[in-house]
């Protein structure tokens, strides 16, 4: 999954692809490099982000989706607003990536169900708690999100779970979340998305600034793939495609 942020303030690439033509060129580049799906975000979710009104969020998304969807590009939209999700799905998006797992907007699950779409349900918290039992909190959160999905009529086969690296967790809990990915997969039997590209955990663990976190991201994502991650959400598509290809070549030689 290639990341396309059409925002001025995302932590890694804010402002780089705000202009529609620049965003479209980057989208096509990621597809050429091996992305199977594009995740488009028009509101930053980084710590301390500025909330964007729904009409402004949609104004950023509309020209991109309207150009890519007719070309058959699989599009995911990173939003917590049901009104934005509905417009995106009507325009041809196929997946809603909700960083609050249907829990921020009471209409979100119903919009996804009505359009027969897929959804990523991410674990999130408002505050960090260094005493948190992460696995127990995963269960609490995902049980509630899945209950909302069931009540709205979202097909369980259309749901994907995201452990929420960098959201409401200490850095040590971020590491634990990656290391425990297999437990999440085993407990729910659903596809898992891992989104840790260039995140602050690599600054904490390796002392690297945002633009020097590719090696750490690759290593963690390869670990995640071996632990059962089905989707890797990344900025650096070509490098991940190469790494995964080599991983498979070596596995096939056994």
TrEMBL record:
EC number: 2.5.1.15
Classification of source organism: Bacteria, Pseudomonadati, Pseudomonadota, Alphaproteobacteria, Acetobacterales
One GO cellular component, as annotated: cytosol
PANTHER family: FOLATE SYNTHESIS PROTEINS, FOLIC ACID SYNTHESIS PROTEIN FOL1
Domain (Pterin-binding): residue spans on this chain: 1-245
Domain of life: Bacteria
Swiss-Prot/TrEMBL catalytic activity: (7,8-dihydropterin-6-yl)methyl diphosphate + 4-aminobenzoate = 7,8-dihydropteroate + diphosphate
Stated name of the protein: dihydropteroate synthase
Cofactor: Mg(2+)
GO MF term (any one): dihydropteroate synthase activity
Pathway in which this enzyme or protein is active: Cofactor biosynthesis; tetrahydrofolate biosynthesis; 7,8-dihydrofolate from 2-amino-4-hydroxy-6-hydroxymethyl-7,8-dihydropteridine diphosphate and 4-aminobenzoate: step 1/2
GO biological process, any: tetrahydrofolate biosynthetic process
PROSITE patterns: DHPS_2, PTERIN_BINDING
Gene3D superfamilies: Dihydropteroate synthase-like
InterPro entries reported in the protein's UniProt record: DHP_synth-like, DHP_synth_dom, Dihydropteroate_synth-like_sf, Pterin-binding_dom
One Pfam family this sequence matches: Pterin_bind
Keyword terms: Folate biosynthesis, Magnesium, Metal-binding, Transferase
């Amino acid at each position: 999954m290639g990341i396309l942020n059409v925002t001025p303030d995302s932590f890694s690439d804010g402002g780089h692809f705000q202009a529609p033509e620049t965003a479209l060129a980057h989208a096509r580049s990621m597809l050429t490099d091996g992305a199977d799906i594009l995740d488009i975000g028009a509101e930053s979710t980084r710590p301390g982000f500025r909330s964007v009104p729904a009409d402004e969020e949609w104004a950023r998304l509309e020209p991109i989706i309207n150009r890519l969807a007719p070309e058959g590009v699989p599009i995911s939209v990173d939003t917590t607003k049901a009104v934005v999700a509905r417009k995106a799905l009507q325009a041809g998006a196929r997946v809603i990536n909700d960083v609050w797992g249907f829990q921020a907007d009471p209409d979100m699950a119903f919009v996804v169900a009505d359009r027969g779409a897929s959804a990523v349900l991410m674990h999130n918290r408002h505050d960090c708690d260094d005493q948190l039992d992460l696995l127990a909190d995963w269960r609490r959160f995902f049980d509630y999100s899945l209950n909302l999905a069931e009540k709205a009529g979202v097909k369980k086969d259309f749901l994907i779970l995201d452990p929420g690296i960098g959201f409401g967790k200490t850095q040590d809990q971020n590491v634990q979340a990656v290391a425990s990915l297999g437990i999440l997969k085993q407990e729910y039997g659903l596809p898992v998305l891992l989104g840790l590209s260039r995140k602050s955990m690599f600054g904490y663990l390796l002392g690297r600034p945002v633009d020097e976190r590719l090696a750490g991201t690759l290593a963690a994502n390869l670990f995640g793939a071996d632990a059962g991650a089905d989707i890797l959400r990344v900025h650096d598509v070509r490098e991940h495609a190469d790494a995964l290809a080599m991983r498979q070549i070596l596995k096939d030689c056994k």
